[in-house]
Design brief:
Elements (H helix, E strand, L loop, with lengths): L3 E6 L2 H5 L1 H13 L3 E4 L6 E6 H14 L6 H11 L9 H11 L5 H8 L3 H12 L1
Helix pairs in contact: 2-3, 3-4, 5-7, 6-7
């Protein structure tokens, strides 16, 4: 969940322009992400935690002209679908798993989510309420 992901944005400058890319870089930096060129190529990528990239994309939708950032928004949204498990907070994921399968053991919860025994017990208690 805390791992950084990288989303490729090929030919970004050619598609949105230099000024829009600079504004997008500032927005990404504000959210704890990094929007930069891949080595010396014309390709760019945005790197950071999945939740931070999602919030950056939401700001791109609100802040600028949607047509200006449409390429970035489309690429980020489709790439985030592959990382849906990283977008959900651990506590919400644990409660969802318990509600889907009430007979799940604490060991299975810990194995699926890489959480501690205390987090799994707390989620079991919260799900019962």
């Amino acid at each position: 969940m805390h791992d950084d992901i990288s989303i490729p944005l090929p030919s970004l400058i050619h598609r949105i322009g230099r000024e829009a890319a600079k504004r997008a870089q500032a927005m990404a930096l504000k959210h704890g992400c990094e929007l930069k060129r891949v080595r010396r190529s014309r390709n760019w990528s945005i790197t950071g935690p999945a939740i931070a990239i999602q919030s950056c994309c939401a700001e791109l939708k609100v802040e600028g002209e949607v047509a200006e950032f449409a390429f970035m928004i489309k690429k980020i949204d489709t790439a985030l679908l592959q990382h849906a498990d990283k977008l959900e907070p651990l506590s919400a994921k644990l409660i969802r798993l318990i509600n889907e399968n009430p007979a799940i053991t604490l060991g299975e919860l810990m194995q699926q989510t890489q959480c501690s025994i205390s987090e799994a017990r707390l989620a079991r208690f919260d799900a019962e309420l």
